[in-house]
Write a structure and sequence with these properties.
- The protein has about 325 residues and is mainly α.
- The chain has 13 helices and 2 strands.
- The longest helix is centred in the N-terminal third of the chain and has 33 residues.
- The N and C termini lie far apart (about 50 Å).
- The relative contact order is 0.18.
Length: about 325
């Protein structure tokens, strides 16, 4: 009984942290892109988060190997002597770099709550990539929830909620295009990385290190191409405040934490986490940015939350329900006969 209580408490802890990180990251990023007078360069924030992820992954790998000698041998074998593996992991690095930069662009033009709801389009994108790349199948209920989610996002975007306290000029269409690119990148990169992980017995932390090394190179190139002249003139950390540093930390820790706790939770809990993050982001946006909630936004957000829950239901549960219904029907037929 004690073990069950500990297990439940730990799962609730995971759910709470996942929800708070997702909601806080979205709202804080939105705040730094709309309130600050000296706007920082988003490309440098993405690059810095990759550096922090690499450092944290090295720390976790050090703990996993247990000694400096084993850590050194592991890094030499899987990093220095494996250029093909680095090249393989450069694919999701490039895609994730695009996704993270698109998130900054989207939250510069859309409210945090609208972004949080619309970003759930990553679920159908991931589902499609899973079917095409991993040859998996979806149940009818999952396909139904995918279409329901798309309908909910359409309602949210039909007449986007406006923020009365945000004074900067925004382009909602540009924000939606940025989210569309981000969700496609998220779906493809997530499934690609899963396929790489399952193709060998290499440690998750080794794979993360390979990916983040490529990610640092890719994001540095992005800094040079997009903001090279401005960075040389004003400095890499121009516009950085404690709040911006907090955003970078959340971006770094959030991704790693999610990858670790996913194995301790199920799809239903992840669905509740996403739905709770939507609610928290909406409440925070009302108080911080003066978000005016419309009927179409509320209806669409509700549809998205329900569809996330339905999509996360285990296939075994839906099959069991179908079999129970079939058994009831057969018994009724025998009674009538």
């Amino acid at each position: 009984m004690a073990l069950e209580n500990v297990s439940v408490v730990f799962k609730l802890y995971c759910l709470t942290v996942m929800t708070l990180v997702a909601a806080t990251y979205t709202v804080t990023l939105r705040y730094t892109r709309t309130i600050s007078s000296d706007l920082y360069f988003s490309t440098t924030a993405v690059c810095l988060s990759e550096v922090i992820k690499l450092i944290l992954s090295l720390g976790m790998l050090s703990k996993e190997t247990g000694s400096p000698t084993r850590l050194k041998n592991t890094l030499v074998e899987h990093v220095l002597c494996s250029p093909k593996e680095l090249l393989k992991l450069s694919v999701p690095s490039i895609v994730y770099a695009i996704q993270n930069n698109m998130a900054f662009l989207a939250l510069s033009n859309l409210d945090a709550a609208v972004y949080q709801v619309t970003y759930q389009l990553k679920i159908p994108c991931t589902a499609l990539c899973t079917v095409l790349m991993l040859n998996r199948s979806l149940s009818r209920l999952q396909w139904f929830s995918v279409f329901m989610l798309c309908g909910g996002v359409t309602l949210v975007q039909w007449k986007p909620a406006q923020s009365t306290k945000v004074q900067i000029e925004q382009n909602p269409f540009l924000g939606f295009v940025a989210i569309a690119i981000a969700v496609v990148c998220s779906g493809f990169a997530g499934v690609y990385f899963e396929k790489v992980l399952k193709s060998s017995d290499t440690s998750l932390w080794v794979r993360n290190i390979q990916m983040y090394i490529s990610g640092i190179v890719v994001t540095l190139i992005g800094v040079c191409i997009t903001d090279g002249e401005n960075v040389l003139e004003n400095g890499f950390f121009f516009g950085y405040t404690p709040m911006v540093c907090f955003v970078v930390l959340l971006a770094s820790v959030g991704g790693l934490y999610t990858s670790v706790v996913v194995k301790y939770t199920d799809n239903i809990m992840k669905g509740f986490s996403a739905a709770a993050a939507i609610v928290l982001s909406t409440v925070a946006s009302v108080f911080m940015f003066g978000l005016q909630i419309t009927f179409s936004f509320a209806s669409g957000a509700l549809l998205v939350c329900v569809s996330i829950y339905l999509y996360g239901l285990p296939k075994t549960e839906t099959l069991r329900l179908n079999r129970e219904d079939a058994d009831k029907q057969s018994k009724q037929r025998l009674i009538t006969v």
